[in-house]
Design brief:
two-stranded antiparallel ribbon; 14 helices; 396 residues; mainly alpha
């Protein structure tokens, strides 16, 4: 038998901590009270716990994410009453107390983004608790039975309000609509209660901090042991690859294609108000303006690549022309040098033949002139003009 100790809280419903009597083994995990979080705070340097809330997301990620959700769940339970239709109608005083406690418990800057994130996560937890209350409501057939079987986590005023609200036509229509939409859901994932964004953060590159693109994230959250969880998930992935292949066919190899992949993914999945399909909760909506901006950037990038390609081809063409011209000049120079060498050899042969003829002649020339001719024939720079000048000088 369990003995219930009620912990009073003037701001909302009372929390319940169940203590088993001696000799009785406690069954189940019991209600989360946040005591483990308080113990962790005692061992921290400044009494606060670390958690990461990226500026582009409304969700906690990293090692402290579970503590963040646990503590926020406790505070939502303590402060947010259920005698209202939805989270929007919860008092601002209760929401301010939740925010103040989370800022006091975790190392977070007091910015509007952090406050919005706390409230958005609190909204999800509030709706989850409301669903559990509705599940309890459905266990009983009559209103009398439902009122007599009040859950422990709400007081009588709250439960009476909820029984009337769950019986209302507005709630029944909304519940039926949600049930129908849920039945249409084909793209099941394998993450359980773990957010897509938490998985994305865990799979980031340790060196660069870069997280997987949306196509890779889709694969991480919809495959198990290398197999897609269903055909619809695989078909969407194939369609995405086809679109991306068309988009990046003219992009250089070293170009970062992740923005292109992400934009194509958003275009395929579409967006609803405040929610990006296929990315899970906690991500800021990109919107059509962002999509158009990415497409414009892609078009500008393609144009720039095409212009660079034309410039490169023009430069390569000019370089080829210059190379061909230099090669032609080199060949002409080689021909001229070969011709000059040949002419010098012919001249030298002619001079030697002349010297031999003069030496054998009866009317030979003076030995001094013959020496000049012989010396000139031994020089590569010999020429008929210089030779004749030397001979004329000797005669004089």
């Amino acid at each position: 038998m369990m003995t219930n100790v009620l912990i009073s809280d003037s701001t909302g419903p009372t929390d319940v901590i169940s203590h088993p009597q001696s000799g009785k083994k406690r069954k189940g995990r019991g209600k989360t009270t946040g005591l483990s979080i308080q113990k962790k705070r005692k061992y921290s340097d400044n009494g606060k716990l670390e958690v990461i809330i990226p500026p582009d997301r409304t969700i906690a990620v990293g090692p402290g994410a579970n503590d963040f959700v646990t503590e926020l769940s406790v505070k939502v339970f303590q402060h947010a009453r259920h005698d209202v239709k939805n989270w929007k109608n919860v008092s601002n005083l209760a929401k301010d107390r939740i925010i103040a406690h989370m800022l006091d418990t975790f190392q977070l800057p007091d910015t509007q983004h952090i406050r919005d994130t706390i409230l958005e996560r609190a909204n999800h937890l509030y709706r989850y608790r409301r669903k559990r209350l509705h599940d309890h409501f459905k266990k009983f057939a009559t209103e009398e039975e439902r009122l007599q079987n009040k859950p422990k986590e709400v007081n009588e005023v709250e439960w009476k309000f909820l029984v009337e609200y769950f019986n209302s036509e507005d709630f029944k229509r909304m519940s039926e609509r949600n049930k129908t939409n849920k039945a249409k859901q084909e793209l099941n994932h394998i993450c359980g209660r773990k957010s897509f964004q938490a998985i994305s953060f865990e799979k980031r590159d340790i060196n660069t901090g870069k997280e997987p693109n949306l196509q890779k994230l889709w694969e991480l959250t919809h495959t198990k042991n290398g197999r897609w969880v269903n055909d619809a998930s695989a078909e969407l992935n194939d369609k995405l690859k086809e679109i991306v292949a068309e988009q990046i066919q003219d992009v250089e190899e070293d170009t970062d294609v992740d923005p292109i992949i992400n934009a194509a993914f958003v275009r395929i999945m579409g967006e609803t108000s405040g929610y990006c399909r296929g990315q899970g909760s906690g991500i800021k909506r990109t919107g059509k303006r962002y999509m158009n901006g990415v497409l414009e950037q892609l078009q500008a990038q393609r144009k720039e690549v095409e212009e660079e390609r034309c410039k490169r081809e023009s430069v390569e063409c000019k370089l080829t022309e210059v190379k061909n011209q230099l090669e032609e000049e080199r060949k002409n120079r080689e021909v001229m040098e070969a011709r000059l060498v040949r002419d010098q050899k012919m001249l030298k042969g002619g001079i030697m033949a002349l010297v031999s003829h003069l030496q054998s002649s009866k009317n030979g020339l003076p030995s001094a002139i013959l020496n000049i001719i012989a010396d000139s024939s031994d020089s590569d720079a010999a020429s008929p003009t210089s030779l004749m000048d030397d001979i004329s000088g000797e005669r004089a």
